[in-house]
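chain below, 616 aa
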Amino acid sequence: MLIHRLPQLTRRLGQQAFALAFIAALVLSLLPTLASAADRGAWAAYTNYAVADTVTYDGKGYECRQAHQSLPGWEPPNVAALWTEKAGSSDTQAPSAPSGLTSTSKSSTSVSLSWSASTDNVGVTGYEVFSGSTLAATTTGTSVTVSGLSPNTTYTFTVKARDAAGNRSAASSAFSVTTDPQIADSQAPTAPTSLRSTGTTSNSVSLTWNASTDNIGVTGYEVFVGGSTLAATTTATSATVSGLSPSTTYTFTVKARDAAGNRSAASVSASATTLATSTGDIPSKILIGYWHNFDNGSGFIRLRNVSPKWDVINVSFAEPTNGATGGTIGFTPYNSTEADFKADVAYLKSQGKKVLISIGGANGQVRLETEAARTAFVNSMISIIEKYGFDGMDIDFEGHSLQLNSGDSDFRNPTTPLIKNLISAIRAVRDHFGSKFVLTMAPETFFVQLGYSFYGGSCLGCDTRAGAYLPVIHALRDILSWLQVQDYNSGPITGLDDQYHNMGNADFHVAMTDMLLTGFPVGKNPSYFFPALRPDQVAIGLPANVNAGGGYTAPAEVQKAVDALVKGIPIGSYTVRSNVANNKSLRGLMSWSVNWDAFANYEFTNSHRPYLDALK
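prediction:
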């Protein structure tokens, strides 16, 4: 995973001096000499910094000590070898008050507001909208819609700006507006269209459809099986129907409803057949661990000696052998002969484990920009998997492996060559091995959940990698075994509540996972809705301990998050939007890594193995 060979050592007590020297020397040996020092504004990942450059982060100022290219997890407070805090740099200056608050539209239950942007000495990070003295909404933009209001009622709104240091502006001038009178509604929504299956298991079918319209507004959908039996309800345009029988064909329809209780006609029906029950399936609740094919100070473990509490072991990593754009992937066992490594893989498989080869990682950039690179990727991966007997592959592309060309705005129909070639290549490898092949992905939040707020192919001025995994996940969801987003080494991410969530606690894991289980409009464009994944296609990615990566979460907080998602136990800070009853099939927990877990006396596996077993 990210920075798996570098700054983890800085967190080891008793070795700080060695770690600082090691990082400084290695960073200087790998990276080019950078430009002269400058005020670089807010710190950003994947940016080249020169000695004496200054940045701001979390309301404080920092000066660069060593030239480097930044990575997520290398935020200035986290890596003292690279940054030093400037004395007296804390930000205490509040933004200016927003101005020009006005209403752009209204209904009987909502008011849309807009205002002119505030300014700040460092930067405005968001706005808080108040109805009277009650916080009604937050946003990072200069407009918002406040819903859940009463008809024919006057509301008075104000807005405050905030910055990264938590300073808040004075309130804007108050603006009052009266909602429209209640209108008797007897008009039903239009029928949903294009109902289709996006995936099946032996006991579930995932469905999606195109949204209905209504004269006032659609509030939800009802999914029926066999024409009359209500199977699921949702506010999104996707749902997973569980509790089905294997090898059985089911016919589904969907109806839309509005706030007045009007229901649309049923959609055109769609049929899907559940998979047969197969022997040797992966358990319903699993622990997935990444095994180091290197030694970064966490300690080398022979593959066959990993903790038996792991269900799936991802061998890390296979990496490019002919450059990032060549496409050829190679793998050589570390500290082992090929014969011993093959025997270790076979041994773990004999114990009922799944052993996958993970491709990429922080140091293995893979960019399939051409057809030739795509072909080389397919041929080399098939060769590696067959040679060592792996059960499948894990796509762990980080850094600059994925990005979107300008104008590539529809994740359902990507046009960027490296995205299209990757999708084609992965499918070709899986098709070669058949339906028993295990396919997983381990993107960072930047490449998935950030796509709710910003999509690299359509937003102006944002990083073109934002949300770049979404077209890959969507195109391969029918063969994707599970997705294990890295809920660590992440900046703040906006959830479905339009609030920022920070890593390292139950709130972050619930908000990030709920996005995958609910679906979301990509780039907040309702025309581009990313459908929910099946719960059994979702695992939560975690660092095994504080050495493994930023955002370590104590076991009790992790289990608190899972309880919220699968049992509906509230956590207070975030309300789950997905269907808790369906979420009981959540796949499990992933960790970076097997080695860091052993280093920490097996805290991760000893804590979470019995907990997951009790959920089965």
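The radius of gyration is 25 Å. The chain has a mean pLDDT of 89.
thats it, cya
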